[in-house]
Design goal:
Elements lengths: L3 E4 H4 L6 H25 L1 E2 L8 E4 L4 E3 L6 E2 L14 H6 L4 H17 L9 H13 L10 H11 L4 H15 L7 H15 L6 H13 L1
Antiparallel strand pairs: 1-3, 2-5, 3-4
Length: about 220
């Protein structure tokens, strides 16, 4: 069993500057694109990707833990759901890789902004957080820059899972061509892109109808 020195929810308070938050978010982003490819290829859903379930090992690397909830895509979630979960998971309770990707974007937003993402936060508010970070003119030297993270986060936080998949494909098409990224990172993005292109999710019409019914009661 690897020794965990800290979890990311414990690290966030120590990362107060934009430079520190960007470096941490870049580490997590790299971990996420690797994990997403693995989950899609295996037709699995982690189901509970949160900062408290990401640990820093004694060698400094990051790992996603708590795979007790690891399930086949499409199964009913066995977890207690909260408002931080993807909208479609709250509505129908069925796991999917797109709900995992929603949680990835949500937790990256939390690292960068210090604000826990929830359904009451609008796209305009997310955009404002990014504008404030851009205005700080960070000179941090990091492979994964703010623009890269912004593109990924906005795609992953789409409410409709069908649109989320399409936005993520479009984002990865841009990112895999970004020559400022290392070849291994671009290759990982390409692998995720090709895997995601083969993946189908539930109809956005069914998802929207579920949201409509929820709002009636």
């Amino acid at each position: 069993m690897p020794q965990v020195s800290s979890t990311l929810d414990q690290e966030i308070p120590k990362n107060k500057t934009i430079e520190q938050r960007l470096r941490l978010a870049g580490e997590v982003f790299t971990l996420y694109i690797q994990a997403a490819t693995f989950l899609i290829e295996g037709n699995f859903s982690h189901g509970d990707i949160t900062l408290s379930n990401i640990g820093r090992l004694s060698d400094g690397s990051l790992r996603i833990f708590d795979f007790d909830s690891f399930q086949r895509v499409g199964n009913m979630s066995t977890l207690l759901l909260s408002n931080n979960n993807a909208p479609e998971l709250i509505v129908n309770g069925r796991t999917s890789i797109m709900s995992d990707m929603y949680n990835m974007g949500s937790s990256l937003f939390q690292i960068l902004s210090g604000v826990e993402h929830n359904p009451t936060i609008t796209k305009q508010q997310v955009l404002k957080h990014f504008q404030n970070m851009h205005d700080q003119r960070s000179n941090v030297s990091s492979e994964i820059n703010l623009a890269t993270l912004e593109l990924f986060i906005f795609a992953s936080l789409e409410n409709n899972p069908v649109e989320r998949r399409q936005k993520m494909i479009e984002a990865l098409q841009v990112l895999q061509s970004n020559t400022s990224l290392s070849i291994p990172t671009r290759r990982t993005m390409h692998n995720l892109l090709t895997t995601l292109e083969k993946t189908r999710v539930r109809s956005g019409v069914l998802h929207s109808f579920g949201l409509f019914c929820r709002d009636l009661f």
